[in-house]
Design goal:
Shape: globular
Number of domains: 2
Strand order of the largest sheet: 2-3-6-5-4
Radius of gyration: 20 Å
Strand content: 5-15%
Distance between the termini: 57 Å
Helix content: 40-55%
Order of helices and strands: EHHEHEHHHEEEEEEEEHHHHHHH
Oligomer: single chain
Length: about 325
């Protein structure tokens, strides 16, 4: 019977990580964090809460679909809005508010109830998982996030902290989704050890594409300056490599659903102060390449990711990434 990795001594775990790092060519601190990411996903989705949750975002693309060529560290989870505020949603399909005033009521109710749910329900599930698996971690809550801090065996440059963050949202259903089995990246290199596994319900990549594309669009038209954003451009290109961008382009009904959802829940203004029209964006007006100033900020962040080993394999030149996004923009804006 295989010995559990999490039951090993610190010395033996560090040695195991070293073996996996040598065989995989990946930094030990990222392999270590990946184990805690899978452990956390298992605790959440194997609980009674799991049937109403959907795993989404970059980490879902990495762990469930092996699409993106980068390490993704945080866990984005959607709690079905129909479960959180059934008294407001009713039988509306899709569950999107029809007016801005209705959206305000939904947002207020979600903001009030989700934080309580995270504290009273989700945190308790994670604490039970800690006890059941006998691990030494610290759990804290801030707003709608749960933070799981572990004492790291290996260290990187500091870009990736020794903390797993569960980020909860509840403004949609997370659909379309499917159940996927995920494993730790180190597992294939250490077959004599037992690592955490999980089987979450995962948002389909075609919806993730439109979620990311509209977020990138907002960044571009707002002229946003910020760090840790370049990963979204990287993810869009990798989704295209895997064929999911074209699948998304072919599903304009889904694109419109995502746009209407964001128009109600994530209202924003462009650099001129005009409201951003998400429906217009996915109907031929999508912008995926920012202006020169924002590009410099993105390039610096991209370089930092590469230096900490976040980008796996050969690092694609940033200029190539922007050229690919320009091509994606053209293709996304062609209406059949």
């Amino acid at each position: 019977m295989a010995e559990r990795y999490l039951s090993l001594s610190r010395e033996d775990r560090l040695e195991a990580l070293g073996v996996a790092a040598t065989q995989s060519g990946r930094p030990a601190h990222l392999l270590e964090k990946d184990i805690w990411v899978v452990w956390a996903i298992d605790g959440l989705f194997s609980s009674e809460l799991g049937k109403h949750l959907v795993f989404k975002g970059g980490t879902s693309l990495s762990k469930a679909y092996d699409v993106i060529g980068r390490f993704s560290e945080d866990i984005d989870v959607t709690y079905d809005v129909r479960e959180l505020i059934p008294e407001l949603v009713g039988d509306k399909e899709p569950p999107i508010p029809t007016t801005n005033s209705q959206a305000e009521k939904w947002r207020d109710a979600i903001d009030e109830k989700l934080a309580v749910w995270v504290q009273d329900k989700a945190l308790e599930v994670i604490k039970k998982h800690v006890e059941a698996t006998g691990v030494d971690v610290t759990t804290t809550v801030k707003g709608t996030n749960i933070y799981i801090d572990y004492d790291p065996l290996a260290k990187g440059t500091g870009y990736v902290p020794p903390r797993v963050t569960l980020e909860f949202g509840a403004r949609s259903t997370g659909e379309p989704s499917e159940e996927k089995e995920i494993v730790c990246d180190a597992a294939e290199h250490l077959p004599d050890l037992e690592f955490p596994t999980a089987k979450p319900k995962v948002m389909l990549p075609k919806r993730t594409f439109w979620e990311k594309a509209t977020a990138v669009h907002v960044y571009c038209v707002k002229g946003t300056q910020g760090d840790r954003y370049s990963r979204h451009w990287h993810d869009l290109v990798r989704l295209d490599d895997a064929g999911y961008a074209q699948v998304a382009f072919d599903d304009r009904t889904l694109a419109k659903d995502v746009a209407e959802f964001k128009g109600k829940f994530f209202r924003a203004k462009d650099s001129a102060g005009n409201p951003i029209d998400y429906v217009a964006a996915v109907s031929g007006g999508l912008k995926l390449v920012p202006d020169a100033g924002a590009i410099k900020t993105l390039e610096a962040d991209y370089k930092t990711m590469a230096e900490d080993g976040i980008l796996l394999g050969d690092v694609e030149p940033f200029s190539n990434l922007m050229a690919r996004c320009a091509d994606l923009e053209k293709r996304a804006n062609v209406r059949k």
